[in-house]
Amino acid sequence: MDCYRLKFTAPFHVDSRGNAFYEESGSFIHSDTLSSAILATWALIWPEQMSQQAQTPSFRLSSAFPYYQDRYFLPRVLSSQAIRLPPDKLKQAKKLKKIQWLDTKLWLASLTDSDWANAIDLEKSVCQSVLASQSNALPEKLWLEEERPRLAIDRNDNQAAESQIFNFSRIWLDPNGGLYFLAVFDDEASRQQFETALRVLGDSGIGADRTSGNGCFTWNRGRIPDLQIAEQGKAIALSLVNPAPSDCQTGWLEGSAYKLVSRGGWIGGSGIRKQRVRMFAEGSVFNQPLTGRMIDVSVDHLPHKVFRDGRGFFVKAG
Predict the structure, then answer these.
(1) Which of 131, 197, 224, 252 could cross-link to 101 by cystine, CB 3.0-4.6 Å?
(2) Tell me: the pLDDT tens digits for 41-54?
(3) φ, ψ for residue 156 (rounded to 5)?
(4) What is the pLDDT of residues 69-116, one digit of tens each?
(5) Are residues 169 and 293 in the same domain?
(6) Can you give the residue range of the structural domain that contains 149?
(7) Which of 206, 227, 248 is the last residue of a domain?
(8) Domain total of the chain
(9) What is the model's pTM?
Protein backbone atom coordinates (compact mmCIF):
# COMPACT_ATOMS: atom_id res chain seq x y z
CA MET A 1 0.00 0.00 0.00
CA ASP A 2 1.27 3.47 -0.94
CA CYS A 3 0.27 6.89 0.36
CA TYR A 4 0.25 9.99 -1.87
CA ARG A 5 -0.05 13.53 -0.51
CA LEU A 6 -1.46 16.20 -2.82
CA LYS A 7 -0.40 19.78 -2.08
CA PHE A 8 -2.63 22.10 -4.06
CA THR A 9 -1.02 25.12 -5.69
CA ALA A 10 -4.43 26.46 -6.81
CA PRO A 11 -8.01 26.16 -5.56
CA PHE A 12 -10.18 23.32 -6.83
CA HIS A 13 -13.86 22.61 -7.46
CA VAL A 14 -15.33 19.11 -7.43
CA ASP A 15 -19.05 18.59 -7.87
CA SER A 16 -20.13 16.92 -4.65
CA ARG A 17 -23.64 16.28 -6.00
CA GLY A 18 -22.94 15.30 -9.60
CA ASN A 19 -25.70 17.53 -10.93
CA ALA A 20 -23.86 20.71 -12.00
CA PHE A 21 -24.48 22.43 -8.66
CA TYR A 22 -21.59 24.87 -8.97
CA GLU A 23 -22.47 26.92 -5.88
CA GLU A 24 -20.99 24.24 -3.64
CA SER A 25 -17.77 22.24 -3.91
CA GLY A 26 -16.79 19.10 -2.09
CA SER A 27 -13.89 19.57 0.32
CA PHE A 28 -12.42 16.16 -0.50
CA ILE A 29 -12.26 14.06 -3.68
CA HIS A 30 -14.20 10.82 -4.03
CA SER A 31 -12.38 7.75 -5.31
CA ASP A 32 -14.40 7.54 -8.55
CA THR A 33 -13.51 11.15 -9.47
CA LEU A 34 -9.83 10.57 -8.69
CA SER A 35 -9.73 7.31 -10.64
CA SER A 36 -11.47 8.87 -13.65
CA ALA A 37 -9.01 11.77 -13.69
CA ILE A 38 -6.07 9.38 -13.58
CA LEU A 39 -7.49 7.19 -16.35
CA ALA A 40 -8.22 10.20 -18.58
CA THR A 41 -4.61 11.31 -18.15
CA TRP A 42 -3.39 7.75 -18.72
CA ALA A 43 -5.26 7.74 -22.05
CA LEU A 44 -3.30 10.79 -23.21
CA ILE A 45 0.06 9.19 -22.41
CA TRP A 46 -0.58 5.54 -23.35
CA PRO A 47 -3.71 5.46 -25.58
CA GLU A 48 -2.95 1.91 -26.70
CA GLN A 49 -3.52 0.65 -23.12
CA MET A 50 -6.87 2.28 -22.48
CA SER A 51 -9.17 -0.45 -23.76
CA GLN A 52 -7.83 -2.72 -21.02
CA GLN A 53 -7.23 -0.07 -18.33
CA ALA A 54 -10.74 1.39 -18.58
CA GLN A 55 -12.36 -1.95 -17.77
CA THR A 56 -9.78 -3.39 -15.34
CA PRO A 57 -7.42 -0.68 -14.05
CA SER A 58 -4.07 -1.86 -12.71
CA PHE A 59 -4.54 0.18 -9.53
CA ARG A 60 -7.11 0.54 -6.77
CA LEU A 61 -7.59 3.84 -4.89
CA SER A 62 -9.13 5.20 -1.74
CA SER A 63 -10.80 8.59 -1.80
CA ALA A 64 -8.58 11.63 -1.17
CA PHE A 65 -8.98 12.75 2.46
CA PRO A 66 -7.67 15.81 4.36
CA TYR A 67 -4.28 15.94 6.08
CA TYR A 68 -2.58 18.68 8.09
CA GLN A 69 1.17 18.53 8.64
CA ASP A 70 1.74 14.97 9.93
CA ARG A 71 -1.89 14.27 10.88
CA TYR A 72 -4.06 12.22 8.57
CA PHE A 73 -7.85 12.33 8.82
CA LEU A 74 -10.19 9.47 7.99
CA PRO A 75 -13.98 9.47 7.47
CA ARG A 76 -15.85 8.69 10.63
CA VAL A 77 -16.93 5.06 10.63
CA LEU A 78 -20.70 4.84 10.27
CA SER A 79 -20.97 2.25 13.03
CA SER A 80 -19.54 4.82 15.51
CA GLN A 81 -22.62 7.05 15.42
CA ALA A 82 -24.03 5.74 18.72
CA ILE A 83 -21.86 7.30 21.42
CA ARG A 84 -22.16 6.87 25.16
CA LEU A 85 -21.70 10.22 26.86
CA PRO A 86 -21.42 11.01 30.57
CA PRO A 87 -24.21 13.24 31.96
CA ASP A 88 -21.96 16.34 31.97
CA LYS A 89 -21.38 16.03 28.21
CA LEU A 90 -24.92 15.40 27.01
CA LYS A 91 -25.24 19.03 25.88
CA GLN A 92 -22.30 18.43 23.53
CA ALA A 93 -24.04 15.66 21.60
CA LYS A 94 -24.90 17.95 18.67
CA LYS A 95 -21.28 19.07 18.35
CA LEU A 96 -20.10 15.47 18.31
CA LYS A 97 -22.70 14.53 15.71
CA LYS A 98 -21.27 17.14 13.30
CA ILE A 99 -17.78 15.62 13.37
CA GLN A 100 -17.09 13.89 10.05
CA TRP A 101 -13.31 13.35 10.20
CA LEU A 102 -11.09 11.80 12.86
CA ASP A 103 -7.31 11.71 13.00
CA THR A 104 -5.81 8.24 12.74
CA LYS A 105 -5.52 7.63 16.51
CA LEU A 106 -9.09 8.70 17.21
CA TRP A 107 -10.33 6.75 14.21
CA LEU A 108 -8.71 3.54 15.41
CA ALA A 109 -10.03 4.15 18.93
CA SER A 110 -13.57 4.59 17.58
CA LEU A 111 -13.45 1.02 16.22
CA THR A 112 -13.05 -0.64 19.59
CA ASP A 113 -13.81 1.89 22.37
CA SER A 114 -17.37 3.13 22.82
CA ASP A 115 -16.01 6.00 24.96
CA TRP A 116 -13.64 7.29 22.28
CA ALA A 117 -15.43 10.66 22.11
CA ASN A 118 -14.34 11.49 25.67
CA ALA A 119 -10.80 12.01 24.32
CA ILE A 120 -11.94 14.98 22.22
CA ASP A 121 -11.62 18.51 23.58
CA LEU A 122 -14.53 20.11 21.72
CA GLU A 123 -13.15 23.61 22.39
CA LYS A 124 -9.52 23.08 21.31
CA SER A 125 -9.27 19.86 19.28
CA VAL A 126 -12.01 20.42 16.68
CA CYS A 127 -11.44 22.28 13.41
CA GLN A 128 -14.32 23.77 11.37
CA SER A 129 -16.75 21.76 13.50
CA VAL A 130 -16.09 18.65 11.37
CA LEU A 131 -12.46 17.56 12.02
CA ALA A 132 -11.37 16.16 15.37
CA SER A 133 -7.86 15.37 16.61
CA GLN A 134 -6.22 14.41 19.87
CA SER A 135 -3.78 17.24 19.18
CA ASN A 136 -4.63 20.88 19.92
CA ALA A 137 -2.34 22.16 17.15
CA LEU A 138 -4.98 22.48 14.43
CA PRO A 139 -5.57 25.63 12.38
CA GLU A 140 -8.76 27.60 12.79
CA LYS A 141 -9.77 26.40 9.31
CA LEU A 142 -8.16 23.70 7.18
CA TRP A 143 -9.94 24.94 4.05
CA LEU A 144 -11.83 28.01 2.90
CA GLU A 145 -14.66 28.08 0.37
CA GLU A 146 -14.72 31.00 -2.04
CA GLU A 147 -17.57 31.96 -4.36
CA ARG A 148 -17.15 33.89 -7.61
CA PRO A 149 -19.90 35.06 -9.98
CA ARG A 150 -19.91 33.41 -13.41
CA LEU A 151 -21.93 33.76 -16.62
CA ALA A 152 -23.54 30.53 -17.79
CA ILE A 153 -22.37 29.05 -21.13
CA ASP A 154 -24.71 27.00 -23.33
CA ARG A 155 -23.07 23.57 -23.74
CA ASN A 156 -24.52 23.14 -27.26
CA ASP A 157 -23.12 26.25 -28.95
CA ASN A 158 -20.54 27.38 -26.37
CA GLN A 159 -22.14 30.84 -26.24
CA ALA A 160 -22.95 32.90 -23.15
CA ALA A 161 -26.50 32.40 -21.92
CA GLU A 162 -28.07 35.84 -21.55
CA SER A 163 -28.76 36.97 -17.97
CA GLN A 164 -27.84 33.61 -16.47
CA ILE A 165 -25.35 34.36 -13.70
CA PHE A 166 -24.41 31.84 -11.03
CA ASN A 167 -21.86 31.53 -8.23
CA PHE A 168 -18.90 29.20 -8.70
CA SER A 169 -17.39 27.75 -5.53
CA ARG A 170 -13.70 26.92 -5.06
CA ILE A 171 -11.83 25.30 -2.16
CA TRP A 172 -8.57 26.78 -0.87
CA LEU A 173 -6.56 24.46 1.39
CA ASP A 174 -4.22 25.50 4.18
CA PRO A 175 -0.58 25.73 2.94
CA ASN A 176 0.41 23.15 5.59
CA GLY A 177 -2.33 20.76 4.54
CA GLY A 178 -3.87 19.10 1.53
CA LEU A 179 -5.46 15.83 0.50
CA TYR A 180 -3.98 12.34 0.58
CA PHE A 181 -5.07 8.99 -0.78
CA LEU A 182 -3.98 5.36 -0.52
CA ALA A 183 -3.30 3.08 -3.47
CA VAL A 184 -2.43 -0.52 -4.29
CA PHE A 185 -1.05 -1.70 -7.63
CA ASP A 186 -0.92 -4.88 -9.66
CA ASP A 187 2.86 -4.61 -10.05
CA GLU A 188 5.80 -2.20 -9.96
CA ALA A 189 5.40 -1.20 -13.62
CA SER A 190 1.80 -0.14 -12.93
CA ARG A 191 2.93 1.96 -9.96
CA GLN A 192 5.51 3.78 -12.06
CA GLN A 193 3.01 4.49 -14.83
CA PHE A 194 0.48 5.66 -12.26
CA GLU A 195 2.97 8.12 -10.77
CA THR A 196 3.75 9.48 -14.24
CA ALA A 197 0.03 10.03 -14.88
CA LEU A 198 -0.36 11.62 -11.43
CA ARG A 199 2.46 14.05 -12.19
CA VAL A 200 0.84 15.07 -15.48
CA LEU A 201 -2.55 15.37 -13.76
CA GLY A 202 -1.02 17.70 -11.18
CA ASP A 203 0.15 20.02 -13.95
CA SER A 204 -3.19 19.99 -15.80
CA GLY A 205 -5.44 20.04 -12.71
CA ILE A 206 -8.31 18.02 -11.31
CA GLY A 207 -11.95 19.03 -11.07
CA ALA A 208 -13.82 21.80 -12.88
CA ASP A 209 -12.44 24.97 -14.48
CA ARG A 210 -9.00 23.54 -15.15
CA THR A 211 -8.55 25.87 -18.15
CA SER A 212 -8.46 28.72 -15.62
CA GLY A 213 -5.71 27.06 -13.62
CA ASN A 214 -7.87 25.41 -10.99
CA GLY A 215 -7.06 22.05 -9.40
CA CYS A 216 -3.27 22.05 -9.94
CA PHE A 217 -1.12 20.28 -7.36
CA THR A 218 2.25 18.76 -6.60
CA TRP A 219 2.58 15.42 -4.85
CA ASN A 220 4.93 13.42 -2.73
CA ARG A 221 4.82 10.10 -0.96
CA GLY A 222 3.55 10.27 2.58
CA ARG A 223 3.76 8.16 5.69
CA ILE A 224 1.30 5.30 5.43
CA PRO A 225 -1.31 5.50 8.23
CA ASP A 226 -1.45 2.59 10.65
CA LEU A 227 -3.93 0.66 8.51
CA GLN A 228 -4.03 -2.77 6.91
CA ILE A 229 -5.73 -3.84 3.71
CA ALA A 230 -8.71 -6.09 4.46
CA GLU A 231 -8.81 -9.38 2.61
CA GLN A 232 -11.44 -11.04 4.78
CA GLY A 233 -13.40 -10.37 7.94
CA LYS A 234 -15.01 -7.13 9.08
CA ALA A 235 -13.89 -4.26 6.86
CA ILE A 236 -14.35 -0.51 6.42
CA ALA A 237 -14.64 1.20 3.04
CA LEU A 238 -12.24 4.06 2.31
CA SER A 239 -13.67 4.47 -1.19
CA LEU A 240 -17.05 4.60 -2.84
CA VAL A 241 -18.25 1.08 -3.61
CA ASN A 242 -20.74 -0.34 -6.08
CA PRO A 243 -21.02 -4.07 -5.26
CA ALA A 244 -20.35 -6.69 -7.89
CA PRO A 245 -22.94 -9.49 -8.29
CA SER A 246 -20.51 -11.86 -6.56
CA ASP A 247 -20.56 -9.61 -3.47
CA CYS A 248 -24.32 -9.93 -3.02
CA GLN A 249 -24.49 -13.28 -1.29
CA THR A 250 -27.21 -14.31 1.14
CA GLY A 251 -27.03 -12.19 4.29
CA TRP A 252 -24.20 -10.01 2.99
CA LEU A 253 -25.69 -6.85 4.57
CA GLU A 254 -26.36 -8.38 7.99
CA GLY A 255 -24.58 -6.42 10.73
CA SER A 256 -23.41 -3.75 8.30
CA ALA A 257 -23.57 0.04 8.71
CA TYR A 258 -23.65 2.07 5.52
CA LYS A 259 -24.82 5.19 3.72
CA LEU A 260 -25.76 5.46 0.06
CA VAL A 261 -24.74 8.33 -2.21
CA SER A 262 -25.89 9.13 -5.75
CA ARG A 263 -23.18 9.82 -8.34
CA GLY A 264 -23.68 11.50 -11.70
CA GLY A 265 -21.84 14.13 -13.71
CA TRP A 266 -20.88 14.93 -17.28
CA ILE A 267 -18.93 12.97 -19.87
CA GLY A 268 -15.88 15.08 -20.62
CA GLY A 269 -15.97 17.11 -23.83
CA SER A 270 -19.43 15.86 -24.84
CA GLY A 271 -21.97 17.96 -22.95
CA ILE A 272 -23.79 14.69 -22.16
CA ARG A 273 -24.64 13.46 -18.68
CA LYS A 274 -23.44 10.10 -17.42
CA GLN A 275 -25.93 7.58 -16.12
CA ARG A 276 -26.45 8.04 -12.38
CA VAL A 277 -25.50 5.22 -10.01
CA ARG A 278 -25.89 4.59 -6.28
CA MET A 279 -22.84 3.68 -4.26
CA PHE A 280 -21.90 2.89 -0.67
CA ALA A 281 -20.13 5.85 0.95
CA GLU A 282 -16.73 6.00 2.62
CA GLY A 283 -16.89 4.83 6.23
CA SER A 284 -19.40 2.06 5.50
CA VAL A 285 -18.78 -1.16 7.41
CA PHE A 286 -19.37 -4.72 6.16
CA ASN A 287 -18.72 -8.20 7.51
CA GLN A 288 -16.56 -8.92 4.46
CA PRO A 289 -14.74 -6.55 2.07
CA LEU A 290 -16.63 -6.03 -1.18
CA THR A 291 -14.80 -6.42 -4.47
CA GLY A 292 -16.94 -3.83 -6.25
CA ARG A 293 -16.85 -3.28 -9.98
CA MET A 294 -16.23 -0.90 -12.86
CA ILE A 295 -19.69 0.33 -13.89
CA ASP A 296 -20.58 1.04 -17.49
CA VAL A 297 -22.29 4.47 -17.41
CA SER A 298 -22.24 4.97 -21.18
CA VAL A 299 -25.09 6.56 -23.08
CA ASP A 300 -26.18 6.18 -26.70
CA HIS A 301 -24.47 8.03 -29.57
CA LEU A 302 -20.98 7.89 -28.05
CA PRO A 303 -18.09 6.30 -29.98
CA HIS A 304 -16.61 4.74 -26.82
CA LYS A 305 -17.72 3.30 -23.51
CA VAL A 306 -17.53 5.29 -20.26
CA PHE A 307 -16.90 3.62 -16.90
CA ARG A 308 -17.19 4.71 -13.27
CA ASP A 309 -14.88 3.12 -10.72
CA GLY A 310 -16.94 1.40 -8.05
CA ARG A 311 -14.26 -1.02 -6.86
CA GLY A 312 -13.84 -1.20 -3.11
CA PHE A 313 -10.81 -0.11 -1.11
CA PHE A 314 -11.21 -1.71 2.31
CA VAL A 315 -9.12 -1.72 5.48
CA LYS A 316 -9.39 -3.96 8.51
CA ALA A 317 -11.82 -2.88 11.21
CA GLY A 318 -9.39 -3.17 14.11
Answers:
(1) 131
(2) 998 899 888 888 88
(3) -80, -40
(4) 888 999 988 876 556 666 666 666 777 778 889 888 888 888 887 777
(5) no
(6) 2-227
(7) 227
(8) 2
(9) 0.86
